[in-house]
Amino acid sequence: MSPLIAQLSKYATYHRDSRNIQTHFVGIPMIVLAVFVLLSKPSVSVLGVMLTPAIVVFIVSTLYYLSLNLAYGLVMALVHGVLLTLADNLALNSTVIWLCWGVGLFVVGWVIQFVGHYYEGRKPAFVDDLMGLVIGPLFVVAEAGFLVGLGKKVEREVEAIAGPVRKPVLA
């Protein structure tokens, strides 16, 4: 089993309810953006280049995603690059506005996540394994691809381990 399938399927076992997955499409990008926002304000000059903790997190996470799978890693670099650019722009604001955006996105994103896990009837993956915090954004990208017909082989392999996504039964 590839490292990508191992990580996605482990995370997916906590995310089989389609409503939970839908909340993750909103909550996880908000949380990632919030983290980038909060890490974009402090900076230090390294060899004449301004470096922020957000850039370090971007580089380290991109290298990790690339180590799992080249294609998914490149998509993650693109998605996180867009979020990092938005975060850098928000960090240009006053400290109060910067903090309001960062903390606000973080709190609202987590509220949305916990609503999803209420539907799931299961705790978030990171409670048992902190790597869930890193795999969550990758899971969202993979699930988005599955919805539009991409990554069918990956989807089949993940579902063979985690089971199919459940749709709610309407009365």
Entry summary:
The chain has helices at 3-12, 18-40, 53-68, 70-90, 95-120, 132-147, 152-162; strands at 44-46, 49-51. With 171 residues, the protein is mainly α.
Strand residue content: under 5%
SSE order: HHEEHHHHH
Shape: globular
Quaternary state reads single chain
In what order do the strands lie side by side in the largest sheet? 1-2
Give the helix level as a range of percent: over 70%
Number of separate domains: 1
Largest sheet: 2 strands, antiparallel
Mean pLDDT: 93
Could you characterize what this model shows?
72% of the residues lie in helices and 4% in strands. The mean pLDDT is 93. It starts with a helix and ends in a 9-residue tail after the last helix. It is mostly helical and 171 residues long. The chain has one domain (3-7, 27-157). α1 (3-12) packs across α6 (132-147), α2 (18-40) packs across α3 and α2 (18-40) packs antiparallel against α5 (95-120). The radius of gyration is 17 Å and the shape is globular. The chain has helices spanning 3-12, 18-40, 53-68, 70-90, 95-120, 132-147, 152-162, and strands at 44-46, 49-51. A two-stranded antiparallel ribbon has the order 1-2.
Explain the layout of strands and helices.
Blueprint: H1 3-12, H2 18-40, E1 44-46, E2 49-51, H3 53-68, H4 70-90, H5 95-120, H6 132-147, H7 152-162
Antiparallel strand pairs: 1-2
Helix pairs in contact: 1-6, 1-7, 2-3, 2-4, 2-5, 2-6, 3-4
